[in-house]
Structures are given as structure tokens and as C-alpha cells.
Design goal:
The protein has helices at about 20-45, 45-70, 80-90, 95-110, 125-135, 140, 170-175, 180-185, 200-210, 220-235, 240-250, 255-260, 270-290, 300-305, 310-315, 325-330. The protein starts with 20 loop residues before the first helix and ends with a helix. Helix 2 (about 45-70) crosses helix 3 and helix 9 runs parallel beside helix 12. The chain has about 325 residues and is mainly alpha-helical.
Length: about 325
Amino acid sequence: MYDLSKVVVTSSPHIKAGDDTRSLMLDVLIALLPALCVAVYTFGWRALVLTVISMVACAVFETIYNKIVGHPNTVGDLSCFVTGVLIAFNVPVSAPWWMVVFGALFGIIIVKMLFGGIGKNFMNPALGARAFMMASWAGLMTTWTAPHANLPLIGTVNLTDAISTATPLASLKNGVLPDATLMDMFLGQTGGVIGETSAIALIAGGLYLLWRKVITINIPAAYILTVAVVTFLFPMGDVSRVQWMLYQVLSGGLMLGAIFMATDYVTSPVTPRGQIIFGIGCGLLTVFIRYFGNLPEGVSYSILIMNTLVWAIDKATHPRKFGYALDKKKEAQ
């Protein structure tokens, strides 16, 4: 993989070698702020507390690892803080703080640092952490609370603190439209993990990243459009095609995954054509898992699967050098 310890090599052709990693990560953190603000409004201050705990845990684990192996501390590039925010964004607000810490441990140490640190990991650390937490504590990862419930800042959430609710995807899994309106989902007034509920906040962050030329439109557009087209052509149940498609696009982690995690600089293709193929693959896998998998959501696993195929996509879509074969023939003569 690419070594980003000093120079960032990204999926964006607008970002040149030598750009400071810290400034890029700072842009991503700024882009995540709208979704964090909506999460605090929807789920209360507990959402902010879990996010801060996750960020601090990621920084601590990266510092400890660098100290053990004798490497310079890389916390200053801010990438661990981005991972921390995204890990928190991928858990329900009812999650205990210790689970977030274990997620940070897995994401930073196992997925990122053991492979050489930033630029050398082959999968997104936050998504790797989510998969680990889902496999280890499936019950806690799928317990949702209603918006504006009265939750303790850090303590254990029980039935007296919150009203259990179903996410829109749980209803869609059964072929029926959820009780939440499209506007509720657009604004983020539904159940779900901390950072996925507000489509408008995530889109605002994505537009900021596009404006700053941190990402390109290729992966998010290919990903979201693929989900939209497939769900429009193949709706479940006796529902309107357009409504079914809009609910599928606005629900779950599609916006969060397509904008902030599928576009990860290290684990996505570098060629424009490869980015489109990557996005289409993520979209197809997401719909397939949503329709046929045991879980209602498939965004995280879809991106992780496609992460493992990035090397092949880059190899297949890498531009061919003109005259290369001719030069080889001349050398042979």
C-alpha cells in the first residue's frame, strides 16, 4: 500500500503529493461536525461524550503503540481522531463507553498500526472496528433508542432511561415502509447509530470535502446512484418504487459510508475509473446484503469487502504507458 507517513497519496486527483496530512484530516473533522451537532440534538450529550471517549482512546492507543515499537508519535497527523469520530458514529448512542474503547483498540492497533500505520492499512479502521464490535456485542450494537430520550451521560442505558425503537431499515427489511417520514430521515430524527441518521448533515459535510477537493464525486455518486437504481427497479412489497428507493437511500449508513468511509484515501482506488467501479461494487453489495442478509444493513460489510479488492481494481484500471511494449522490443533486439 501507499506510505502516507509523510506524503499523502489519495484517491483525489486534485490532491498533490506533499500535501500535509494534518490539514486533510482537519478538513474531514470539520466535515463531520454537522453530523455530530445533529447527533447531539437528536440523542443528547451522551453522543458527544462517546465521540470524545472514542477520539481520546484512539489517540492513546496510537501513542502507546508508537512508544512500544520506537516510532515517532503520529497522533499529530489527526488521522486517529478521524478514526475515533467514525467509530463513535458507527455505534448506537446506548452503547457503553468501554465497548467504544475496545472498538478503538481494535481499529487502531489491529487494523491500522500492525500494518504499518497510516497509508499501509488495507481496510478502513473504523469499519474494521464496527465489524469487530458487531461480532463481539451484537445485542449492544443493535439496541436503538428513540430520538430525544433522556439518557445518562456515561452510565448504562436501561429501559427506564430510553424508549426502545426500531430503525427505518428494520421495517424496510420486512418489505414495508417505516413510520418515520422522509423528512424525518433527511433531518435525522430517527433511530440509528450516532452518525448515520441525518442525511442533510452528511451531505453538507460531503459538499465541504468536495469544495476543499479532499474527495471527488466519483465514489459517492457511483455508490448512492447504484443503490438508488437497483432499489427502484426491484422494490420489495406492495409499495411505490420512488418511495422505496428514497427510503433505501436515506436510511441506514449509506450516506455516512459513501461520503466518509468508502472515500478513505488508503483503502479506495486511485484511478477515476477504478473509483466508479469501486462505488458500483459497494452499491450492489449493499443492496444484496439488505435484501438477502440476516442483518438489515450492509454498508459496512460492503465497503470492507471492496477494500480487499482495491489492489485488483487499481491494477486493472491503471493507465497503460504508450510505447512501453515497443521500447521492450527494441531492448530485446
